[in-house]
UniProtKB/TrEMBL annotation:
Keywords: Membrane, Transmembrane, Transmembrane helix. The chain crosses the membrane at residues 55-74. It comes from the Eukaryota. This is Ion transport domain-containing protein. It comes from Cryptomonas curvata.
Length: 131
């Protein structure tokens, strides 16, 4: 209910403490673990497969950084302004750290950016195949 209250009355006291109220609701759900066995089931899955999940996390981070560096190398000289917001690809992929959020979006399978150089298109194809 606090979420809908903040939508109805923005800028109020509930809106100021919306995140804290959400955290309290999540903590309340975790206290209900003895009544809901599904939380215990998720905990058991994480405990039994911790090493596999950790390996998958490392592979994800490595792919993210490698593809970000590759897109930075391919698109840093692409100065043509494309898209609706008037940002050139060289501004998005000019630095590896700047290109990390854009690469994460591309790795998720969403392609809001489509105006790549041919080498950038090859990197995006590799992202589709390997990631």
């Amino acid at each position: 209910a606090p979420y809908f209250w903040t939508l109805a009355f923005p800028g109020g006291r509930v809106d100021a403490y919306d995140e804290a109220l959400r955290m309290l609701r999540i903590l309340r759900l975790l206290k209900m673990e003895k009544y809901i066995p599904s939380i215990t089931l998720v905990d058991d899955v994480v405990r039994n497969n911790f090493h596999k999940l950790r390996l998958a996390g490392w592979v994800t981070v490595v792919f993210w950084i490698v593809f970000s560096a590759l897109l930075c190398a391919c698109e840093s000289a692409h100065r043509v302004v494309t898209g609706d917001n008037g940002i050139a690809q060289s501004a998005r992929f000019g630095d590896v750290l700047v290109s990390l959020p854009y690469t994460l979006i591309l790795l998720s399978g969403d392609y809001p950016l489509v105006d790549f150089t041919p080498s950038g298109q090859a990197v995006c194809l590799c992202m589709c195949v390997f990631a």
